[in-house]
Design a protein that fits this description.
By secondary structure, the protein is an all-alpha fold. The protein has 2 helices and no strands. The longest helix is centred in the last third of the chain and has 35 residues, at 40-74. Keywords: Membrane, Transmembrane, Transmembrane helix. The chain crosses the membrane at residues 7-28, 49-74.
Length: 75
């Protein structure tokens, strides 16, 4: 029977994958902005709009990795 500690590893892995998907999404949005931007100011504005998604995705990914590490240490 699995304990709650054993569930930390798969839950953390899922959270990390969600974060990685968010990072990939922000990369796609920045590449699209680079292609579509007419000037530097427009590009800067579009990149600043993507920044919260990027930082949030990194945070989610780190939290997931912390869950995995804690699960491995406690198991």
């Amino acid at each position: 029977m699995e304990t709650h500690v054993d569930l930390l590893i798969p839950i953390g892995a899922v959270i990390s994958v969600i974060g990685i998907i968010g990072i990939a999404l922000s990369i796609v949005q920045v590449r699209r902005a680079k292609r579509m931007a007419a000037n530097d100011d427009e590009l800067r504005a579009k990149i600043q709009a993507v920044l919260p998604l990027n930082l949030g995705a990194f945070l989610v990914s780190v939290i997931g990795l912390m869950c995995v590490v804690i699960g491995v240490i406690l198991t």
